[in-house]
Design goal:
Elements: E1 13-16, E2 23-26, H1 31-43, H2 46-60, E3 61-62, H3 71-86, E4 89-95, E5 102-108, E6 113-114, H4 120-123, E7 125-127, E8 133-136, H5 141-145, H6 148-152, H7 157-167, E9 169-173, E10 178-180, H8 186-194, H9 198-209, E11 214-221, E12 228-234
Antiparallel strand pairs: 1-2, 2-3, 4-5, 6-11, 7-8, 8-9, 9-10, 11-12
Helix pairs in contact: 1-2, 2-3
Length: 240
């Protein structure tokens, strides 16, 4: 007689996808997903970590393709699934700004904020010249994983910014055409980017730099000197 199969793969919770406002149902990680994530995080390989996050969310979240979501959507969803899987409270070590004593600071993952401009959809089209505009989008982790420099954040800052901007390009619109960037060869995209003036590039860069991110501020009192400290967490890497 075989062992019973537990029905723990049924979605039990609901959350809202930040960029689309879609309600989706999800279940906590099972042991098999926890093992996959543990191996990935121990490897310290950014590509393996991102890949395992996407695979686990794909298994746990119902009714949505996580590979097509903006990267910050995936970050937020991962924190919510993790909160229901291993506990809503997590902790980190932080050195006091006054005496450098390390403090164990606890915080609730469900208090993490994701601030998105409700008008972002109206701001995604940037006028470059009188007859040429660029439509922007938020990049997905699928695109990040296909780019070694972005996935590993390995390279000069200027090159990383350049690649980040390219990942946000959706289309280039002229008087007669709407050219999808994903259908163009890398050489053509780079040629277009290199033809921009600094002022034109700054318009696009502003969209990239204002991309939503996980954020949370924590106030605590040092256990040694009683100094009041504030921790500003931003981006998934600060939370885990």
């Amino acid at each position: 007689m075989g062992l019973p199969q537990l029905r723990n793969d049924v979605p039990k919770y609901e959350m809202i996808v930040p960029s689309t406002k879609q309600a989706v149902k999800f279940r906590p990680f099972l042991v098999k997903e926890q093992k996959t994530l543990l191996v990935a995080f121990e490897s310290k390989d950014p590509k393996q970590i991102l890949g395992s996050m996407l695979d686990c969310l794909e298994s746990c979240v119902q009714g949505i393709n996580v590979h097509d979501l903006a990267s910050f959507d995936v970050d937020y969803m991962f924190t919510q699934v993790r909160a229901k899987s291993v506990g809503e409270t997590t902790q980190l070590l932080h050195a006091c700004a006054e005496c450098n004593e390390e403090n164990e600071v606890k915080f609730n993952l469900q208090e993490i904020n994701m601030n998105i401009d409700d008008d972002w959809d109206k701001k995604k089209v940037i006028q470059i010249t009188d007859d040429i505009s660029v439509e922007l989008k938020y990049p997905t982790y699928k695109e990040v994983l296909s780019n070694d420099m972005l996935a590993k954040k390995d390279g000069p800052v200027a090159d990383l910014l350049f690649e980040s901007i390219i990942s946000c390009l959706h289309s280039v619109q002229t008087e007669n055409e709407n050219i999808l960037v994903k259908d163009e060869p890398k050489e053509e995209i780079e040629r277009f980017m290199n033809s921009l003036t600094n002022q034109q590039l700054e318009k696009i860069t502003g969209f990239v730099e204002s991309m939503p991110t996980l954020s949370h501020n924590i106030d605590y009192e040092c256990v040694k000197c009683k100094n009041k400290n504030t921790i500003e967490l931003s981006g998934l890497q600060d939370f885990f």
